[in-house]
Amino acid sequence: MTQPQQPLTKYGRLQRELSLTTKEPYLLLSSKKPIHPRVGLSPPPGTFKINVDGAASHDSSPSSIGITIRDSSGHVFSAMSKVLPGCYQADTVEAIALEQGILALEMNITRAAFESDALTIMESLNAKKIGGPLGHILHGILGLLSSFPSWTLRHLKMEHNKVAHDLAQLVRTSRTTQVWKGVTSPVLQYLLHQKEPS
After folding, report:
1. Is residue 132 left, alpha or beta, with left meaning phi > 0 and alpha meaning psi from -120 to 50?
2. Which residues, 6 or more positions from 186, have their beta carbon under 8 angstroms from its beta carbon?
3. Low-confidence residues of the chain: pLDDT under 50
4. CA atoms within 13 A on the CB side of 100
5. Which class is domain 26-184?
């Protein structure tokens, strides 16, 4: 007997429309064509801006994260939509997203600005309060940040972190980790050109 199909979410429709139905566990897409910047998204000169977001699961399915990395011209240098190997609480997923955002950077980057809509995580790190259940993750994040000569952590509202948020949600439909490096893939172009507050 055939199971009735569930209505597709916004991300499920996008996934189907753009035909990203690969069975591979890890998909790397690349292109020589740059993704052009949008007004207001460029970090200061010489700085890479990393936006991260985590999506906790409420139905025991794996949690996921989304990451975008922009260069100082505002071009998207890299992006990731990643499935995590388990189901985690919201604060844990947000901390993992930040950790993965740091690890996604090239080792020769010296100036980085990290942005997240996870207020508790960003406040704890800026105040160097790294106790509690997430202490080991936060301690690790501060250790990773110490390798950069210059770095900042900034909290921003969810609506200003939309692309990273959408990337974290998108992978929950595809269940396939995807990494983009300098690409013009339909998924990333679609997300980057959605209306976002300036």
Report:
1. left
2. 18
3. 1-8, 14-40, 195
4. 27
5. alpha beta
